[in-house]
Amino acid sequence: MIVGLDMGGTHIDGVIVSEGSIIDTIKTPRYADDLFESIWMTLEKLLMGHDISKIKRINLSTTVSTNAIVEGKTSPVGMIIQSGPGMPHDFLACGCENSFISGYIDHRGKVVEDLKLEEIEDVKIKFKEKNIKSCAIVTKFSTRNFDHELRIKDLLEDGFSHITMGHTLSGRLNFPRRVFTSYLNAATYHTFRDFSTSIQNAMEQKGADIPLFILKADGGTTSLQEAGKKPVETILSGPAASFMGLNALLNTQKDALLLDIGGTTTDIFFLADGVPLFEPIGIEIHGYKTLIRAIYSFSIGLGGDSSIDIVNHELKIGPKRHGPPYALGGPKPTPSDAMIALGLMEAGHRQMAIDAIKGLGKSLNLSVEDTANKILDTMSNMIKAKVDELLVSINSKPVYTVRELLHGKKIEPQLINIIGGPANCLAAILEKKFNLPCYCPRHYGVANAIGAAMAKITQDITLLGDTSRGILSSAEFGFQERISKDFTLEDMRSRALELLKRKAMELGAKEDEIEAEIVEESSFNMVDGFFTKGKNMRVEAQIRPGLAGDLLVANPQEHKYSIKDDKYDQSKK
Amino acid sequence: MIKARNSLGLVFFPAFDWAISPTHPEREERLLYTKDQLFEEGVEDIEGIQFYNPIIANEKDIQRVHFCVPDVESRLTKSHFISAGGAIRAMEAKMKGEVDKAFAMVRPPGHHAQRVVYGDRGFCVINVEAVMLERIRQEYRDLRVAIIDTDCHHGDGTQDIYWNDKDTLFISFHQDGRTLYPGTGFLDEFGGPAAYGYNINIPLPAGTSDEGFLYLLDHVVLPILEEYKPDIIINSAGQDNHYTDPLTNMNFSAQGYAQLNSKLDPDIAILEGGYSIEGALPYVNLGIVLAMAGLDYSHVREPDYNEEGLKQDKRTSEYIKELSRHVYKRWENREELWAKNIKGRENVILKRQVYYDTDGILETQRQNFIVCNKCSGLNTIDSQSDSGYHIYAITIPRDGCPNCLDQGYRIYKNASPGAYTDVYLQDRINDHYCAK
After folding, report:
1. Would residue B340 count as lying in a domain?
2. Measured between alpha carbons, how far is A475 from A146 in angstroms, rounded to an integer?
3. pLDDT score of A491 more than 70
4. What angle in degrees, to the nearest 10, is found between the helix axes of B128-139 and B78-95?
5. A203, A283, A317, A449 - which has most CB atoms within 10 Å?
6. Mean of pLDDT values over B191-220
7. Which fold has domain A2-70+192-244?
8. CATH number of the CATH domain containing B264
9. How high does pLDDT run on average in chain B?
10. Residue A558 pLDDT exceeds 50
11. Adjacency order of strands within the sheet including B232-237
12. pLDDT at site A551
């Protein structure tokens, strides 16, 4: 048995999956402001009547770190930034104290100018005077050489309760993002630690020895312990849970458009040959661009509860939600009212919905039916326009080789998978607009929790080999070793896969479920004059997000929820 | 995050899978460290900076500028079409108003490629900027353009292409041709009969530093641009004036390059040469990007930068001062010089030999510029190569008059196929190209 929990804005969803079947589900409102309390109560309710000794793992999608950041409830952070020459750096001052120190490392990882130890001593005193407990150290090109970050950490170690080093969070290049990501990690460290301690204590008291995993924005999980070291990786796991849920309910190996149409927003995702698309560099949160790997998602302010106004004789839907649909006592007409008025959806008072739509129809000189249809049509057009725009930008992402420019993969969705309240009502219209088949699962109520439950451990690695300097290294693994002149790209590949597997097992993955793959590789001859002096090799490998097994179609009679892949019923048109 | 003062389009196409040969300076690795630097600095996150992929130029784009012998397909690799396409995409972004300025970091380079193309010379097969500019002129309008070639080598290809075109001012400053490839680019190469004075060369002494480059920019280039009033300024942005470049002997720095671009304020920059791939390119490219975007570049500095050690000596400074005065005076007196050297002539003949160093081909050519008082006039090229070709090529210029148009086709028709291996006609009025 696997338990999946997803903490949403208003509700917590839970599910128990056993051998591909959903055997129990729960949906509870958030009881209190205390996130831990809410989760624990939901979990206890869900587990009631089940043999907890049979639970293999609990996967949790939490908003602990996200909320801390968005609500500004983070710890003050002292930033130590070595920016070296290059771009102006004032904008990097994101901590409550920021020290820009001397020294620098170049793009090959060579130390051009050393640290000044006395500067670090001064920083330490300054931070302590300000009563700072969390620090982050980031040096430019630390992914190429993290020696300065390590040495600074050694000098600070005894004075602070947490220190984040930039190179541990990602192997990718982007110094400003490394600074912001490190800041957020240090800022959320204590909040997440408190949450993690509470949950571990509660489990212990219950006598449950169940491994706990936390969902990340990339659609995979990590161990609670690892998440404690890198809480920033757990931000924005909500869209990832919904994405994984969609995939579990409606699996495909094709290029696909995935839509989660909710009350307030519509989230848009894509699959390329069934493989999730990632954000190009990393996700953005609260104005901070980060290096956190994330499922590509785009959210528009358009949902079943979006308010509808008439502006310049045109329908304007969203982006705001002012409450529930009019038929349910809300203040404004909404797309849901249009669906209720048309008899496509049963909720609230139909007459109220008809009245609301009639009001809009008056200004447009249209009948109730025409107005309602126009609303759904407009909504579908808005989704289509945004999807088209996103596809253009995704398909023109920068490439760097002749081969990719000429033959690179372009995403062309072959089908649309939709979940959410209005999904069924819009499917027929979207099908026509996109000229693609649309699929909706009949029951999607706990899709996010299913997504969390079915998620597996993910991990990635960037491995750099420089045979002229004789160094093999991976910053995010804190790994460095000597290599000989004849180390090859093939050696790089197998080393990367081996390191990945070892790490995944450390995080709690079972050996047979680890599918590691090379994502990118390159090998360049380094030439001095007219002689080759070595090779500069780069390999990126990953364990990509995937489903822990297939979800079986459950029998609705047996369980509280049934899950079924069914083509949208054309007769409803 | 940082916001650019000028929105800037970047076409960054390092062609990581293309090289002239494995140890050739123009090889896969050339822009690798530039990519690392730009990515680590977070350039892609700067608000107002937009990355574009190249489009792929087509045969017609090449034929608008070049006579490829025997044809386009046999002379070019895919990379050449992409490099030109990258430049086209950059200028398109500017013309469509998507960005204020654009910089194409593409390879291979192009400024040594002349009108006739038998092969690769100075690592160039087609003239990327000219292919870009002529396509844009064709699709948009007849722009008045100034091309400032800041590569350390004389832009002899661009000079050849725009030799007789008054609407394309070409200024090249470079290490003196007596000490560096291609051995041309002297003051008396001043333009064809219809554009006399609009081809300006400034040969600089070895050892010229930031001070010298910026001096001639302030005292020659900017004043000339002020008078010429171009619609578009293009920087043919070679980076081999850098003090670490392995092929040249200059002392220009990343700071100098950034300042130059800030003062020159080009609309478009296209990467040309520059082969100090670790020590110069990452910093020079970053400097140019920041300068073009109107951002603070004062922190850009090479690891081994030593301001004192790079200072030019007094004699060099004096020489550049005198040279600048002289070049500017020639520009001011261009009409008198035209009256003295060109006026009254029916045609101007240019005979020369062109060496294709990369491919080891020697070409002997005779260009004939026919003077017309209604337009820029027809011109023809009779060219032989030691690779076994003897071609004849006719160009009817963009501003050609009806007489010249007719005459161009007549010459093409009458050119005896027996005498030549190939005969070509470039009709720039109707954007038409024929070969026989």
Report:
1. no
2. 7
3. yes
4. 50
5. A449
6. 97
7. Nucleotidyltransferase; domain 5 (3.30.420)
8. 3.40.800.20
9. 96
10. no
11. B47-52, B3-13, B101-106, B268-271, B232-237, B145-149, B168-175, B199-204
12. 81
Query: Which residue of B lies nearest to A521 if distances are taken between CA atoms?
Result: B16
Partner residue opposite B40 with nearest CB, options A173, A398, A403? A173
> Do A77-187 and A2-70+192-244 have the same topology in CATH?
no
To the nearest whole Å, the CA of A177 is away from the closest chain B CA by 7
pLDDT at residue A533, as a whole number:
87
Confidence of residue A32 (pLDDT cuts 50, 70, 90): low
pLDDT for the residue A206: 86
Enumerate the residues of chain B whose CB falls inside 8 A of the CB of residue A93.
none
pLDDT band at B380 (very low <50, low <70, confident <90, very high): very high
My answer on whether omega of the bond before B246 falls inside 30° of 0, hence cis, is no
Domain that includes residue B369, residue range: 345-435
* Confidence category of residue B45, pLDDT binned at 50, 70, 90: very high
A vs B: CB pairs below 8 A: 112
The complex's ipTM? 0.94
Residues B118 and B70 in one domain: yes
DSSP state of A473: E
Q: Supply the DSSP string of B293-330, one letter for each residue.
A: TT---TT---TT--TGGGPPPHHHHHHHHHHHHHHHHH
Question: Mean per-residue pLDDT for A488-516?
Answer: 94
- At A135, list the tokens: 């620090």
B299, B334, B369: which is the final residue of a domain? B334
Cβ contact B40–A525 (<8 Å): no
Domain locations in chain A?
Answer: 2-70+192-244, 77-187, 459-543
Instruction: Inspect the interface and report whether the beta carbons of B27 and A525 lie closer than 8 Å.
Output: yes
Q: Give the catalytic positions of B in this structure.
A: 112
What does the alpha-carbon distance between residue B128 and residue B110 come to, in Å, rounded to a whole number? 5
Chain B residues touching residue A402 (CB < 8 angstroms): 15, 17-18, 78-79, 82
Task: Give CA torsion, residues A256, A262, A264, A265, to 10 deg.
Answer: -10
The answer to whether position B154 is within a domain reads: yes
- The model's confidence at residue A570, banded by pLDDT at 50, 70 and 90, is very low
**pLDDT digits over A371-386, tens only?**
999 999 999 999 999 9
Which pTM value belongs to this model? 0.93
Q: What is the pLDDT of residue A564?
A: 33
CA pair distance A369, A353, nearest whole angstrom: 11
Phi, psi (degrees; rounded to nearest 5) at A148: -65, -45
Percent residues over pLDDT 70 in chain B: 100
Residues from chain A that touch B106, judged by Cβ atoms under 8 A, are none
Q: Computed from CA positions of residues A375, A378, A383, A386, in that sequence, does the dihedral angle turn out positive or negative?
A: negative
**CB–CB of A86 and B300 under 8 A?**
yes
Distance from CA of A275 to the nearest CA of B (A): 24
Whether residues B349 and B322 share a domain: the answer is: no
Q: Does one domain contain both B122 and B269?
A: yes
Give the residue from A68, A51, A65, A67 showing the smallest Cα distance to A16: A51
CATH topology of domain A77-187: Rossmann fold (3.40.50)
Chain B closest-CA separation from residue A66 CA (Å): 20
Q: How many domains would you assign to chain B?
A: 2
Residues of B whose CB is below 8 A from A177: 42, 45
With CA atoms as reference, the chain B residue closest to A139 would be B40
Judge if B105 and B230 occupy the same domain.
yes
**pLDDT mean across residues, chain A:** 91
Q: CA of B258: which chain A residue's CA is closest?
A: A86
Residue B339 placed within a domain: no
The answer, yes or no, to whether residue A351 has pLDDT greater than 70, is yes
Whether A24 contacts A50, CB under 8 Å: yes
CB distance A405–B13 less than 8 Å?
Answer: yes
Q: How far is A106 from chain B (nearest CA, A)?
A: 8
Query: Looking at beta carbons, which residues of chain B come within 8 Å of A521?
Result: none
With CB atoms and an 8 Å threshold, state whether B78 touches A402.
Answer: yes
